[in-house]
């Protein structure tokens, strides 16, 4: 089986990078299946351009009361990929 874990290894842009090169970001929940496109400009205004969504997750903010995890996706030429590496994926799926 092809090891695709290296695919994202060199793609861990900051929010400022994503805005500059035009990479879209989405947040999704592993439980309620909610999904929302992230407004990068608004997020940068809040956390600054050097923040990165890579390997980040947080408790669900998309649906009140949901106990799921929110994770981030990024747009690679029209394909939405989870914004994390293989190690984080293993850790999160185990937890
Ligand atoms: Zn949720």
Overview of the structural elements:
- There is one protein chain.
- By secondary structure, this protein is α+β, with helices and mostly antiparallel strands.
- The chain has one domain.
- The chain contains 3 helices and 5 strands; from the N terminus they run αββαβββα.
- It is globular and about 35 Å long.
- It starts with 14 loop residues before the first helix and ends with a helix.
- The mean pLDDT is 88.
- The structure holds zinc ion (ZN).
Gap between N and C termini: 25 Å
What is the helix fraction of residues, given as a range? 25-40%
Q: What string gives the helices and strands in order? A: HEEHEEEH
Strand content: 15-25%
Bound molecules: zinc ion
- C-alpha geometry: globular
Overall structural domain count: 1
- Rounded to the nearest angstrom, the radius of gyration is 13 Å
Largest sheet: 5 strands, antiparallel
Mean pLDDT: 88
Structural class assignment: alpha+beta
Strand elements, count: 5
Residue stretches low in confidence (pLDDT < 50, at least 5 long) are none
Q: What is the number of helical segments per DSSP (H or I, 4+ residues)?
A: 3
Quickly describe the structure.
The protein has three helices and five strands, in the order H-E-E-H-E-E-E-H. The protein has 95 residues and is an alpha+beta fold. The longest helix has 9 residues, at 86-94.
Main features:
alpha+beta; globular; 3 helices; 5-stranded antiparallel sheet; binds zinc ion
